[in-house]
Each structure stands twice: as structure tokens, then as C-alpha cells.
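Entry: LysR family transcriptional regulator
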Amino acid sequence: MKIRDKVNDLEFFLKIVEAGSLTRAAVLLESSLPSMSRRLSQIEQRFGVKLIDRNSRRFKLTEKGEYFLENTQHILSLLEKMENNLQGEQDFLTGRLRIGSLNQFGKQHLAGWIAEFAKQYPHLNIELLLSDSKVDLMEQELDFSFQIEVPLEIDYCSVPLIQGKKIYCASPEYFKKFGIPDNPYSLADHHCLCLIRNRHTFSEWPFMENGKNTIVKVSPQLSSSSSEIVHQWVLAGQGIAYKLNWDIQADLSSGKIVECLTEFNPLHRNLYMVYRENNSTQLKYKYFIDFIKNKFLILRNSVL
């Protein structure tokens, strides 16, 4: 007897029990009572036991019938669970995901999300690389990169995740001690904190003055290749920094960090999820893209 036929018999028996009688089961299954009785008898003959006492005035399972019912429910439940898992692919995504991200954002948000994603798909091997340097997906063999630059290559997809901006900011203690700059050129009288990327110190800060873009070169007292360290220096009152607002949103909201030169800084920045276009057709990439989009939707609504 084929496995499918055996499963059909189990499903048939369960429907009879759930209906409470052969007559009602016949109505529900749009079959005749003699046909239902004949099929039940065939199942009982195959196992050599009586499953349902049909002589009593009330529908009643025999002792063997009770045992058969318990195991039928268990087997059908396992089959349903296996089928759902296979169709959803959730426990069977395999391979490697290699993800690059800006340092501070990766630590604050992405690391926790990736850990959650890994629990859902335990057969995946996921690598998270953090750096504030500009990345090359091909060179570093990355599947995804979370960055503020839009790649020039036409075979890359760039999904905007957060619309924000870089802002000029310092701690209230710093401003209390040294004053708040009233224009970009007064930064020459202040301690500035700069980020280093790819051996380049970002000491040329952009501003908008009278509708025109302008650059003011600052002389940093402290510089670091880590945006997180620059953040710590700002909190410690070491100076003024040019920071991505989503990295310091919690401190801005609490007043630990204060923005300055807002009227000279209308420039906006986006955080992008970048990946190779042909990657989106594979299930592991598709699942990760959908997962991240949902996480950023929640983040935008709750924080930014």
C-alpha cells in the first residue's frame, strides 16, 4: 500500500471521529453511509482490530480505537509541521551571509538584528564586518553593505533605509565652557573632532551659506577611525563633531548632545542597504532583505 493511501486512511479516520458519527461524516464528506462504513471496515481489516463500536447506540471508540486515534493525531501533526517547514524554507536556508556596516550603526542596531535572524535560520553562517572606511563589496566579498554612499556600478541595488543627515554637535558642558559657534567660520576658535576614513581625515566640513555650498576646513584636536570613539569624545565634552544623526539620536533626545549651526546645515544623508542585483533572486538574500526592511520600518517609526 502506498504511503499516500495510508495517510488518506488516517485523515479519513480522524474526520469520522471529529464528526461524531458515520452518518454526519458522510454528510460532511459528501459520501454515502454505506460507502463510509465499507471504507472503515477495510481499515479495520487491514489492522486486524475493531476501531469503532458501531453496534452501540452511541458512537464509541474501542480501546484499540483510542490508541489508533492518539497516534493518528500525532502522525498527521508531524506531517503538517514538516510540510510547512519545507514550504517556508525557514529551517533550511543554508550557506553564508557576509555583511558589512558602518561601525556605530552596526553595534547599536545591526548586530542584535542579525543575532535574531540567525535564531530563525540556524543553518546559515553569518559574518558581520564593521568599519567606518569606505567598502568595496566585490573586493571584500560582501553580500550586503550598510553605507551612506550609493555605488556607481549599475549591477548593484541600493535600498534607502533611513533618511537623515549629518549634524554639527557637542555636549552642553562643552558649549557652556566654550560657547556655541554662530557661524561655520567661528569653528576656528573651537576644538573639533574628526573621523578618519581610508587614511583620510574628514576635516573639510560642508555648509550652506546664502544658498550656496561652501567648505570650511577645521583643525581637529582629536581624530579617530572609529565613529564610536568620536561619539564618546563628544559626550565627554572634548569638542564639536560632525555626526550622523541616527547614530546619536538617543543622546540628542535626552539632551546629552546638542546640535549647532542648524541654519547652515540643510544637507541630508541616507543610509543604504547595498547588494548585487543578482543576489536578490536567492532565498537567503530575499529573506534577509525582507527582514531588514521590516526592522527599519519599526526603527523609523519609534526612533527617527
